[in-house]
Amino acid sequence: MAEKILVVDDDIDTLRLVGLMLQRQGYQIVAASNGQQALQMAHAEKPDLILLDVMMPDMDGYEVTRRLRADTQTNTIPIIMFTAKTQVDDKVTGFEAGADDYLTKPTQPRELFAHVKAVLARSMKGRLPAVASSSLGSDRGRAIGIIAAKGGLGISTLTLNLGISLSNRTQKEVVVAEYRPGHGSIGLDLGYNRPEGLLRLLQKKPKDLTSADIETELVTHSSSRVRLLLSSFQPADARYMLAGESFDAITNHLTHIASVAALDLGPGISPISDRVLGLCDQVIVAVEAAPGTLLRTRALLDELANRGFGEERLLIVLYNRHRLEMQLTLTQVQEQLRASIALVFTPAPEVMYQAARNGTPLVALYPDNLTSQQFGRMAELIMKDIPKKA
Ligand SMILES: Nc1ncnc2c1ncn2[C@@H]1O[C@H](COP(=O)(O)OP(=O)(O)OP(=O)(O)O)[C@@H](O)[C@H]1O
Ligand SMILES: [Mg+2]
């Protein structure tokens, strides 16, 4: 179930805008336009978080905070103060009144989401490790979502080989996770007969999941030190695609455990990626040079932009699996996509076949191969500013 956020502001436009932005991130929103109403709503709705404007007529945000804190029914609800004031004194007054965090208007959507996410994660005391957004300067690892507009484009292969390349180059903790219940392929390609680590986690209650539970389900293949969270391939397990809270929890734990969590999110916006994208720091979109796929990818890019993935958080790669002469050129691809391609992969059907037959990822089997070098380049593009956690 989505977390419920009570947004309190006397300015109706701000109320609407902030409410909409958070709704798009998957939160449930309730609104109040004055202090008295905020107190009533806090009681009636029991929100998971209150975003509270300070400057309001009648009862200001400080007073609302004091009253919420004095009431045992509401004293544990986290509060983010949201105000145009920038003076240090005001922030101190806010914290003294009992606010958990502070945001200054005008706030960038990213900043807002980061604070909301971090405060919500902190408030789930004990349930989740303290997870703060990287923009708040914590030591949280990075979650990278890998996605394509359609299935079968090669994103599982890409996620695995990228993960290994990142691990080899950074010597940091990297986890590759297949968020594909019922559609797993990485485990099979590596010779695991029952790749069910993810499934076992999804069978637990999300709020009971601990980092230790996740560590238990991570496996290491002999080909690299990357740890893998593998997904089953039993079709019926696809029903766990609706376990949104579990995916949120697993993602939060993974970013606590690893410097980089490379997440195979599967094709399109699914119930899983719909949630998990909100926790991703960066998204990689794979495309192929086919007109239909490009149209669908353009639509996906628009959707990602709505979710805050502008150029700086997005990497688009042209992942060619077929012979080049049958396809559009790079210029045509970029024109049709109205976006730049960061990297081009050359098709490698033979070596990919060898890798699958050997049960070894390509970059481990043939590290000097051209495609392996392309995975290496991709890792380097991503590595530039990986957080410092060991
Ligand atoms: N660079 C490549 N060149 C040629 N074939 C490739 C390449 N990368 C992957 N393939 C092949 O393409 C097929 C699909 O790959 P993969 O399973 O990684 O795609 P996917 O996008 O994860 O698919 P799904 O939507 O089913 O999860 C596999 O048979 C794989 O071996
Ligand atoms: Mg796949």
Write a structural description:
With 390 residues, the protein is α/β, with parallel strands linked by helices. It has two domains: 4-123, Response regulator (Rossmann fold, 3-Layer(aba) Sandwich); 142-383, P-loop containing nucleotide triphosphate hydrolases (Rossmann fold). The protein contains 16 helices and 13 strands. It has helices at 12-24, 35-45, 61-70, 88-97, 109-123, 155-170, 186-189, 197-202, 211-217, 244-257, 271-276, 291-306, 330-337, 349-358, 362-365, 370-383, and strands spanning 4-8, 28-32, 49-53, 79-83, 101-104, 142-148, 174-178, 219-220, 227-229, 260-267, 282-287, 314-319, 343-345. The strands form two sheets. The protein has an eight-stranded mixed β-sheet with strand order 8-9-7-10-6-11-12-13, sandwiched between helices. The protein has a five-stranded parallel β-sheet with strand order 2-1-3-4-5, sandwiched between helices. Strand 12, helix 13 (330-337) and strand 13 form a beta-alpha-beta unit. Helix 2 packs parallel to helix 3. The longest helix is centred in the middle third of the chain and has 16 residues, at 155-170. The protein is elongated. The structure holds adenosine-5'-triphosphate and magnesium ion. Magnesium ion (MG) binds at residues 155-156, 180, 185, 264.
